[in-house]
Amino acid sequence: xxxxxxxxxxxxxxxxxxxxxxxxxxxxxxxxxxxxxxxxxxxxxxxxxxxxxxxxxxxxxxxxxxxxxxxxxxxxxxxxxxxxxxxxxxxxxxxxxxxxxxxxxxxxxxxxxxxxxxxxxxxxxxxxxxxxxxxxxxxxxxxxxxxxxxxxxxxxxxxxxxxxxxxxxxxxxxxxxxxxxxxxxxxxxxxxxxxxxxxxxxxxxxxxxxxxxxxxxxxxxxxxxxxxxxxxxxxxxxxxxxxxxxxxxxxxxxxxxxxxxxxxxxxxxxxxxxxxxxxxxxxxxxxxxxxxxxxxxxxxxxxxxxxxxxxxxxxxxxxxxxxxxxxxxxxxxxxxxxxxxx
Length: 342
Hints:
Layout (H helix, E strand, L loop, with lengths): L2 H10 L14 H6 L4 H6 L1 H15 L4 E2 L6 H7 L4 E2 L7 E2 L25 H16 L5 E6 L1 H9 L1 H10 L1 H25 L3 E5 L7 H23 L4 E6 L7 H4 L6 E4 L5 H8 L4 E4 L3 H6 L3 H15 L3 E2 L12 H12 L5
Parallel strand pairs: 1-4, 4-5, 5-6, 6-7, 7-8, 8-9
Antiparallel strand pairs: 2-3
Helix pairs in contact: 4-6, 6-9, 7-8, 7-9, 9-10, 14-15
């Protein structure tokens, strides 16, 4: 089976030759390829090189285009709110947040992903990945979810206060960021991805009432727009932290792959999201992959597999640390290779 065939079979509960493995490797991939992460994030050719190498050397079932939270931010409002580091991802400096003045939002337009910029750099990486890897390898495109991008533009602490002090502004902000995600997803699909991943990292911080009022419908808008225009494209949702209280709402979304962070229990994810839905991840990036041994990683994968059942993709709860011992990541892939969804 090709990687894409293996993933589709897992989604549908059909027999696979082995479980698909899709751990989130970014800084690990750059380190494995011998490059500083700033080069990985700033040059799509470097990202493609690192992803192709780590996938081949470890036997992964995807090439991942996620890298950092500043691509859309910079194309919307420049680099003024971004701090760069040589060997870690760029970070948003909230003291210089792009939307310190909320009135700026009215003057913004959704950026064109095809114009030169950081959004286009990811598209360039996708084009190279598809050319080099061929049609059978899964390429996972990536967009910032409505709240993730909203928090990156406004500042996390500021937007949390805005939920209470200025809900109308939050609605306008999330409408803008949702449309940005839709247009960016369409561009990445045109470049050759078969999957769109969406990260909405701050969602676990707001709780069920605010998630219901402000966010879930806008996540649905993004994912439904992708499915309506490109029904063949898979959707993958990643929300950092403990999302257990949100499962009953998350299950209503048109999501093919739910990537569950290790802060949430996989058994509760299966019960909360429902049978027949595909779960990915949940292996701890800290106690298992970073601090554990090959044996503990292997057993963590077994525990996740037992909790998830047939519709399961082997992976980590969040990004694999660049300090992770390579033999621990190999143990994760070994579990996938030695097991099926039967």
